Amino acid sequence: QTIMTEKGRKRDRPGGSAKGSKGGGDDGKPASKKQQRKAAMAAKTPYFSPKPSSSIVGIDVPLDRLMPQKRIELIAELSESILEDPSTALTSSRTDVVPTTSKANTKDQDTDTNEKQYHKTQSKMNKLFELASLSTNGHDAHAARLALLSLLAIFQDILPSDRIRLPTEAEMNVRVSKDVKKTWDYERKLLQAYQRYLQLLEKTWEDGKFGHRGLSDQTGPPTTLAATSIIALSQLLQTSYLFNFRSNLIQIVVRQANNHSSDDVRLACCHALSVLFTKDVQGEASLEAVRRMAKMVKERHNQQGGRGIHPDVMNTWLSLPLRIHEDEAMAAKIAAQVKKKRAKKSEEAKATQDIENEMKEGEATVDKLELAKNQADTLHAVILTYFRILKVQDGAAEQIDSKVVDSNLLPCALRGLAKFSHLIHLDAVVDLLEVLKKLLENGDRLSTDSCVHCILCALKTLRGPGRDTIPVDMKQYLIPLYGILPRIGIPTNESSLPSTNADDAQSNDEGKVIEEVIQCLDHAFLQRRELSSTRLAGFLKRLAGSSLHCMPTSSVPLLACTRQIASRYSSSSSSKIERMLENEEDIVAEGVFSPDAEDPEHSNSHATSLWELSLLKYHVHPKVAEQSSNMAEGKLLKLPGEAPSKLCAQMKRDAREGHIEQKPMWKKHPLDTTASSRKKSRRRQNQVRFITPRRTANWHMQTN
Fold first, then answer.
1. N or C: which terminus of the chain carries fewer CB neighbours within 10 A?
2. Prior bond to 640 cis, omega within 30?
3. CB-based burial of residue 44 (10 Å sphere; 0-12 exposed, 13-18 middle, 19+ buried)?
């Protein structure tokens, strides 16, 4: 300061103390451009500055000596400081130490004036890691949980969207600028901190996945801290799947997606995989996850003496956005191989290919050839796993005759094949239909859910490409559908996975099945033209009979679907649906109705009427009574409001919320003086209320 003041005096600047002001000095001279520029830069100073490590209270105090509330406050201050300046938070700092000595040691102090003392303070990130570990924070589980979640939020905010590549030894020997070295140092420390965080999460999960260490039971639920660590890993997989250590995240999350001891852990991991399949644009991470899941299914499916695969793991594959046909994928593979051969011939092309591969990692564009190759490999792994489940099920059905043969993965495999069957080869489609036909022959040994999914998969496959070239009779899939309709509303104990509450049991029995049944009827009678009126009448009679014993959540969609089918075929000249709505005494038909026939064409449904509608008109649920009365009167559906799929979702929501819609009964208030009441009063004025008796001929009764 003295030097600056002396320079200011030598240059005769009276306004040297107010150097940055726009006005001049005391003599009123205007300031120079340099002074104005400095004043403008001083005005743009940030409103905050990152706190140094020494300013945070309690950062140097051992954690076991802090109170629990002080630990929580320290976590909040450290998290805020790290987010303000991540580069300085990853490095340790040092401060000058002012020695406190007495007067007797002044002579020794003068001799050591040239030697300075420093106090090294650990980085803020390391301090937060200590708070997240039970072994270093005084065994405070609540503080460790908060620290893990704070680290999760920090890494989700500061991690880049692409992969970091550390410089090689040859690149380190090259002279670069200070900014490049600073960037390399920051990326290296960020990778080390992220790796340490993943190791801490994995160690926390391993320590508490079976409860506390003192428990001998190895099947207990995990601790809260362990569940928090696995949920943090699943969140990192959703947001940072393009960053480093992706394989470690996928390996842990896929393994815990089949966790049978904790529903929260399994659902969090399965949700993370579904989000990964949806967000992955290039398809590399999805391919890696699908391969690990397929390997796990191959090892654990029908495992003797152990637990198999949970259906939630297989249901995550329904989120895969597969759009590439196998023929198109083969063409993409051939083009990629030709491109690689051309690159190998010339050394210059090989060198440029490596540079292009590095540049593609930072670009946001999608390589179509790479996407087609990844989707083809993903589709191959998924279809192969589905066929393996079907083959195992088919072989078990042939070996066992009396025992109920079913797998909890069979509905998942059939649902996936119904979605991706239009992407596979025609030869594979023929094999798939043959396997489904064998499974439906043993439909009595399968659960209702599995049978419905078999029929739906076959109908969707026949509606896909190649339906004109495959000689398949629809009768072999419509007869099992006709036989499965009475089993819809009957609760069974066929599912291998027990339900935890009543809502899950109800959804397993009817909620999940009724949607697939409506889709089967839509593919069988609405998307195609049914030429047999006898078969159509048999299905209508069976649907009306099944609505009697079903719950209202299933009866309303079934009746709406029955109305939709009847309204489509009622205009046909060969149809006799209108006769089924009349009285049985007025129907002239040959034969007797046989409700026990397996084939709807042999049931002779034209000889009876839909008398079930007269009973359903007095149902306790108003929606069921409304649908039955509308069908009896021949009213059309008000689409799309009364679509069967929409009514199914609405009834499930009402059942979950305990809501029953009631029609309001409006009653006129005695003091109501509206316009309508006035008109009625005017009409009543013209009427004679009191009649005067006329005179009679009984004169003898009169008196003078």
1. C
2. yes
3. exposed
